[in-house]
Amino acid sequence: MVTHVPVEAPGDERGALLSFLAEQRGGIRRAVLGLTEEQASSRSTAGELTLAGLIKHVAEVEQSWIARARGEEPAVARDESNWQECFRLVGDETVASQLAYWAEVAAGTEEFVRSVPSLDDTFPLPDRPWFPPEGRVSMRWLCLHLIRETARHAGHADILRESLDGATAWDLVAREQAGARS
Hints:
Layout: H1 13-30, H2 37-40, H3 51-70, H4 95-115, E1 122-124, E2 136-138, H5 139-165, H6 169-181
């Protein structure tokens, strides 16, 4: 990635994990800088994936994993009948509304990860064919999984944005920093 992750306080594993997750979220958020709703929702490759859809997807995925770790059901139930809706805006959803929702989810993730007694604590995996039966994972695994999931999609966002207008991650970091100084 093109940004620097700040050094955590000595021994602050949670802070380090959350900082790397925040850095990857930033890559996706920057990918829509300066775009219209239409541009963010447009396909720039042969596939169906859009920047707006990616934002919605990563927010839903993060929320669903934190809900599972809390022993709750995800806010949105997804199955084969509605899975593709997590990759596109529907109804009155906008890029801004999805970014705001994701910011709320991210704050909840931070609060949850900082509040669990131990990163070694576990929770059950969902009953899905791709997970081991009665599998459990640690809070550390959860953090690493969210980093991996978000980083994978940050790479997709880089490609989609560059395909739209040629803006690279370097360009977008510079644009974001220039805006912060204005």
